[in-house]
Structure formats: structure tokens, C-alpha cells
Amino acid sequence: MDNQQATVVSRATKQFFSSYNLARFGFFLFGIPKNSFGSVDVTNRCNLRCDHCYFFEQDHSSEWSLEQWRNKFESLKGAGIRAFQCSWVGGEPLLRLPLVELGRSYFKYNTVTTNGSLPLPDWKEVSWYISVDGSRENHDKMRNLPGLYDTIKRNIAATEGLKITIAYCITRDNYSEISASLEEWGRNPKVRSMVFSFFTPVRGLDDSLWLGWDEKDRIIELLLENKKEYGAFIVNSEPALRLMKSDRSRSVTDRCPFAEKSFALGPDGIAKEPCMLGPKADCDRCGCVVPFYLKSLTDRNYIIKDVVTALKSKWNNLFLRRHAI
Ligand code: SF4
Ligand code: SF4
Predict the structure, then answer these.
(1) Which terminus of the chain, N or C, has fewer Cβ atoms within 10 Å?
(2) pLDDT in tens, 232-272
(3) For atom 1 of ligand 1, which residue has the closest CA?
């Protein structure tokens, strides 16, 4: 192996290890401890009624009191559960701030997923995921609230130093707006990243927003292309995106690592099965990024195959450069 070849291999190896921080590397070696991450439905209330909402398909008639939640978090701690990360979801979590304030101290990392219609508290240590699905026109239509898009922009503009990610759920109605949204939010200095999921059909609800596999594969290719330009601004990793494609998706969802490893608690403290999307979600057509991301972190065969593919492609590029006519 000459110097140049050695450099290519060493650079690719460094890249591999730098993209996996210590915790992720631990997951690679030892797997993800059960219940080390999960979600809490903060409230059964929401100030919106979106067309595609899975939450109100579920039966959440009551909410636990703060005291009941405190006992729950203490019992998780007492049981020695190494609480790593929690997503605070809903309903709209900002309608019940005291619970998020209480609960986030029990977890190392916290993500609050909000519809963005309310001002964001100045919590700098949490990650904020704000749902924005496409253009102003489409988003306001899906969320059934004219003016919402502009309200979200105002609420974001009013923040200082928060970790804000735009969470874009790709549907049949908005897939053509991905590039324009990337451009718009990519220019916004208050937004540090975007994450893309796909619409997951839920039994009993209209599934016309589902893209179909061919279209979905095409959009994944487009995201992979965009990732070359936007890099880490697009949170989805390349391996996780590739796992979402039609030829591999079932290898993840048939034994969903999200359902196997995480906890999902409803607003009444009752565990939701198999995951936060509830029992009616169509796992075969799951568009949630989490199971694919987890698989890409923990499946050793897949990771090794991915590293070999990356090395091969770098090797081929080097060979082509050297022998260019
Ligand atoms: S904002 Fe979220 S919880 Fe509220 S209606 Fe829309 S999808 Fe459902
Ligand atoms: S809906 Fe998706 S995340 Fe939930 S259990 Fe099914 S495959 Fe897993």
C-alpha cells in the first residue's frame, strides 16, 4: 500500500470513528440498553387539529398529575434504568410546561417536539424539533390553521441560542417542496438543522398522503444528493436513509429496534405499544426515522458493509483519478 492509498484508508477510518461519538460507539459494541431512551406524551391536549394526526386516533382521555409523573421518573431511576434520552411529545407539549420542566432533569438529553405555534421557552440545553411540512400554503392547509407558518417563523426569530431543528414529514402533498424548504430554512440563522421523516399510514385514517414505494425511493435518492451539499444540516445519516429504501425497510421494521428498546408513555402514564405511534401504525410502511437510525448504529454487519462500501468508493475514485485519460 503506497502513501496515498494509506491516507485514503486512514481518512475513511477516521471519518467512520468521528461520525460515531463515544456513546454511539458503545451502542455499536454493546447494543442499546433497553429503556435507555423513549418518549412521553406530555398532554392529551393540542391547540391544532392536523389532517394527518395519529395522536387523536388513540384514546387518551386522562392525564397523570405532576406527582404521579415524579413517582414514575423516580421509580425508573430507582430501577437502575440508565435514562439517556427522552422525547417530549404530545399533544402539544408546550401546553404543559411544568411537566417538561420536571421530567427533563431525569434525562441526559431531551428533545421537545412542538407544532411551533407557541413561543419557545428559553431552554438552551434541550433540542427543539419544530414541525414544518413544506411550503407556507401546504403547511397551513395540513395543519388547518391559516397564518401558522408565519407564526412559527416569528416564534423562531424571537429565540436566542436555542438548538432548533425543522422536522419535515414528507407526504404526497409536499414532496416537491423539499428543495425549496432546504433553501429557505438553510438561510435562517436560528435554525441549525432539518430532519426528514416520511408519512406513516395509520389504520382507520386516510392514507392518501403515503407516497408509494417508487416515489419514496426516488425522494430518498434526492435527500442523499442534497446531503452532499447540505452535510450535517440534514440530520438524517446516509446509512439510515439507505435503510429506509424499499429493498431494506422491512429488514428494520420486521423487528423494530425502536419498539424493542424504547419506552413510550401516554399522557396517562400507560405504556404505548409498540411505539409512540400506537397500535394502529402500519409498521411495514413506517416512515419514522428512529428505527432506521438505531439499526444503522447497532447492526454490526450493516455498519461493516457500509464502511467497506465507503472504502471501495474512495478507492475507485482514487483509481479513476490516477488513470484518468
Ligand atoms: S400538532 Fe401534532 S398533536 Fe396536535 S393535532 Fe397536529 S399532529 Fe396532532
Ligand atoms: S410504527 Fe415504525 S417505529 Fe413504530 S413500531 Fe412500527 S416500525 Fe417501529
Answers:
(1) C
(2) 999 999 999 999 999 999 999 999 999 998 899 999 999 99
(3) 115
Give 113's DSSP letter.
E
| DSSP codes, 11-39 | HHHHHHHHTS-HHHHHHHHH-PPTTSEEE
Centre of ligand 2 from the C-alpha of residue 144, in Å: 26
Query: For residue 56, which atom of ligand 1 is closest to its CA?
Result: 8
Q: How far is the CA of 285 from the centre of ligand 2 (A)?
A: 9
CA dihedral angle for residue 161, residue 21, residue 40, residue 133, rounded to 10 degrees? 60
User: Is the distance from the beta carbon of residue 115 to the nearest atom of ligand 1 less than 6 Å?
Assistant: yes
pLDDT confidence tier of residue 56, bands split at 50, 70 and 90: confident
Nearest residue CA, atom 4 of ligand 2? Answer: 275
Match 407556507 to its residue by C-alpha cell: 136
Distance 55 CA to ligand 2 centre (A): 14
Q: Determine which residue's CA is closest to atom 6 belonging to ligand 2.
A: 283
pLDDT digits (tens, 9 = 90+) for 275-298: 999 899 999 999 999 999 989 888
Where in the chain are the domains? 32-298
Q: CA distances (Å), 171 to each of 134, 149, 200, 216, 291, in order?
A: 9, 17, 9, 9, 19
Q: Is the CB of 92 under 6 A from ligand 1?
A: yes
Do the Cβ atoms of 168 and 178 come closer than 8 Å?
yes
Q: Are strands 127-131 and 37-41 parallel, antiparallel or unpaired?
A: unpaired
CA 233 vs CA 19, 62, 226: distances in Å: 14, 38, 10
Q: Ligand 2 — pocket residues by CB below 6 A? A: 200, 253, 256, 258-259, 274-275, 277, 281, 283, 286, 288, 291
Q: What is the pTM of this model?
A: 0.85
Residue 52 CA: nearest ligand 1 atom is: 7
Torsion of CA 263, 166, 182, 244, to 10 degrees: 10
Instruction: Tell me the C-alpha to C-alpha distance, in Å, between residue 208 and each of 138, 199, 325.
Output: 15, 10, 51
